[in-house]
Each structure stands twice: as structure tokens, then as C-alpha cells.
Specification:
This protein is 21% helix and 37% strand. It contains 6 helices and 15 strands. The longest helix is centred in the middle third of the chain and has 15 residues.
Length: 292
């Protein structure tokens, strides 16, 4: 499936901001066999004094920007065309949780895709008894890892309410879990905590979601902004599989990947510091349109 993507993020400051440095991750990834970035541009206003393109440890592209001139508004606009390649049917070849522990112990690599990076607490995802107990309550019998992840994916969709007004980007994961309200970032962090708590390596995926649904299908939650979902390591045979708890679905050709890492902190769309006064406001607009 081919998509045209447009995105605008804008920050407005009550007083002039006269210095800043930011890390920006807004452009779709190029992933052999999964996703092809055909073309893309990013426009930043005001024009930064420094612009350096880099790649992080997990293989994600990002841009480092620096500003030293006064500005009231900082905007980022991105346009891209992407081919998302559909994945074929998944046959469950994953082990049980005890077998997964054996697979994990036998995995010796520490490369970017190594499941060992995704087992413990991370900056935005603590492992907590509340989410671990919730995950254990969902497990049925001697289920496979894939069946367990799928069950938690469906359970969170059932028990959580998608509510754009309930949380902010800074709301702690456990607070959203206790309220059972949140947005895609909250659903994703909660599911990651659930999975890591029972021994399943899990990570965070940031990206976009198709805005216009296929004919006859419902519109997906979270399509009006940047989206997030979960990747879970289901053993040596199956590797990484991606799930969207916000929509109780496997992530597929409707999901366009920007970056993959441990949690939101690693792959925030815009992260940095600015010298200013007072609280700023921000806005975000996203459009993901199928081509042809």
C-alpha cells in the first residue's frame, strides 16, 4: 500500500524563545522488506543555525537542530511518500513462556534488535506489580507467547477507554492504567509493562496510522495524530511481531513506522530544550492518504 503523508507540529511561545536545541524524529523509516521511504522533505521555521542528520543506536534516523535567533513560533512540516509492504499470514511457531525464557537465554547478541534491550524497566515504562498481575490474570493455561501477547492486546482494548482528554504526553503510565483512560501512547506503555513483567521482551513503535479507512471498515482510533503501538519478541522462530492495543489489532499495512525503541522517551517526535518564559502551546495535524 502506498501513502502520502503530511504532518505539521507547531509550538507557540508567549515570550520570545531565543535559543534551543532539539532532536526531531518525524520522517518515515526505510525498512527492507517492510516499508520503503520513496521521498520526503522536512521544513523547519525559523531556519535553524545547525542541522545535522544522525542515526541512533536502534537504527532510527533523526535530525539534530539548533536555534539562536529570537522566535515566537517554531514549526515543523513533513511530507513523505511511503510504500508499506503487507506481511503474510503468521503461523504460530512461538514457544510457551518457559520456552521463551530458554530462547532469550540462548540469544547472545547485543545488536539493536536484541531482545535483551527490551526486558527491564525503561525511562517511561516501569515494571510494576499492578500491570504484571493484570497480565497474569489474562494468561490462559499453557498458551504460546503469541497467544499470550494477543490476549493482553485484546484485554487492554476491552478494559481501557481511548480518551484524548484524559492524559498528556507527561502523564505517568501507571496513572493512566489506574484510570483506565488514555491515548495510544498510554495503551502502548501499559502493554509494554505488562509484557516485560511476565518475561516477554517488548518495545515501542512510533509512526502514523492511515487516516481514511478502507471502504466498509471503521476508522481506527488515533488516526488524527501521530500513533504508537507495541512490538513483542515471540521467540527465536517468530522474532518481533507488532500489535496495536488501541485498536485491538496486529499492526499491518495501515501502520507506517517512524522509529522503534524502548519507550516514548527514546523516540519522541520533538525533544529538546528552549530558552523562553511562560508555558508554550502546541498543535499537531496529520494526514495519511492512500495513493491509487
Amino acid at each position: 500500500m502506498r501513502y502520502d503523508i503530511s504532518l505539521k507540529i507547531e509550538y507557540t511561545y508567549p515570550d520570545l524563545a531565543d535559543a534551543g536545541r532539539h532532536l526531531v524524529r518525524l520522517m518515515p523509516a526505510d525498512l527492507p522488506g517492510e516499508q520503503r521511504a520513496i521521498a520526503g522533505t522536512m521544513t523547519v521555521k525559523p531556519r535553524p543555525q545547525e542541522w545535522v542528520d544522525r542515526i541512533d543506536f536502534f537504527g532510527n534516523r533523526f535530525t539534530e537542530l539548533a536555534f539562536d535567533s529570537p522566535h515566537e513560533v517554531l514549526s515543523f512540516e513533513a511530507q513523505a511518500r511511503v510504500d508499506r509492504i503487507a506481511r503474510g499470514p503468521q503461523f504460530d511457531m512461538s514457544p510457551t513462556l518457559s520456552g521463551l525464557a530458554e530462547d532469550l537465554a540462548a540469544y547472545r547478541g547485543v545488536d539493536a534488535a536484541s531482545p535483551h534491550h527490551f526486558t527491564g524497566s525503561s525511562t517511561r515504562v516501569p515494571i510494576d506489580s499492578r500491570t504484571t498481575d493484570y497480565a497474569r490474570s489474562v494468561i490462559v493455561g499453557n498458551a504460546s507467547t503469541l497467544e499470550t501477547v494477543s490476549a493482553i492486546n485484546l484485554a487492554l482494548h476491552r478494559d481501557m477507554k481511548f480518551d484524548p482528554e484524559a492524559t498528556t504526553v507527561e502523564t505517568p503510565m501507571l496513572e493512566a492504567f489506574e484510570r483506565r483512560h488514555g491515548v495510544c501512547q498510554d495503551f502502548t506503555h501499559i502493554m509494554i509493562s505488562c509484557l516485560r513483567g511476565i518475561g516477554i521482551p517488548a518495545g515501542y513503535v512510533s509512526g502514523f496510522l492511515r487516516t481514511i479507512p478502507p471502504e466498509g471498515k471503521p476508522r481506527l482510533e488515533g488516526a488524527d495524530a501521530m500513533h504508537a503501538w507495541v512490538r513483542a519478541w515471540c521467540g527465536e522462530e517468530m522474532g518481533w511481531i507488532e500489535f496495536d492495543p488501541t485498536n485491538a489489532a496486529l499492526a499491518g499495512e495501515d501502520h507506517i513506522v517512524i522509529a522503534r525503541a524502548r519507550d516514548y522517551f527514546d523516540v519522541a517526535p520533538v525533544r529538546g530544550v528552549t530558552r523562553s518564559a511562560g508555558a508554550h502551546t502546541s498543535s499537531q495535524a496529520v494526514d495519511v492518504v492512500p495513493v491509487g
